[in-house]
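Appendix B. Extra example for self-study. Work through it before the problem class; the solution is given directly after the inputs so you can check yourself.
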Amino acid sequence: MAEPYPDAIPVDDFVTWTDWVLSRFGFRPSNVLPLLSVCRDELMLPLVDAVHGTWGPSFDASSLAGLPFLGRTGLAAALGHAPGEDGRHRFVLFVLPHVGVDGEGGVGVVRRPGVRRDTAACGALVVISEELAAPGPAGEDDPDDLEMGLLRAHVAARLVDVPVPGLPVLTDLVRREAVAVLDRLVAELGTPAAPVDHAVFSGVLVHRPDGVDEVAPREAFVTIDHHRVRLLA
Ligand SMILES: [Zn+2]
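Solution. Structure tokens for the complete assembly:
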């Protein structure tokens, strides 16, 4: 079986590249607020640590699977924390769902330290994937399971009249949805007197066997004064 995500690169190389590519647009660790929209899974921590090591402490938009549910209120709070001494506020958004890959090229499983069996990654997306493959009656909204309900709703809205996707396609669908939500809400924040610029780095965090993490970059751009420059071919 072909190796999944053959274009993935080491996490540190990915984060170093974000710093390098943004420096020519005036984004520096001292004048940005990083914002992370990743899964709640503890397996995300090496990536989170790498981002913090380069860009400093982040505002957290994480949820199950990595969809951002902080909403306008959360982003308005983040804006209040973003540096703006030169009259501009800048966000660097990291949007990365994740997937485990086993030694045979299977996707959706990972071996965690101290756990002697394969476990799901991303667990929430594996559940959604199973539900899509064998749909049952629609359940009631569960106030004790809000993130999963919102995740289901976002996926369903993007799956109208298209075939049921496999896990890699579903993962990228959620990634694109997360980018779209954040891009839209951040674009609402700026005013002519107090502009907000933002960069987005998005991909899939791939957990390979033996604890090796890589990032498959999928989308990167910077938006300054509503003018977008793509950073990834
Ligand atoms: Zn997850």
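Self-check: The mean pLDDT is 94. If your reasoning did not lead you there, revisit section 3.
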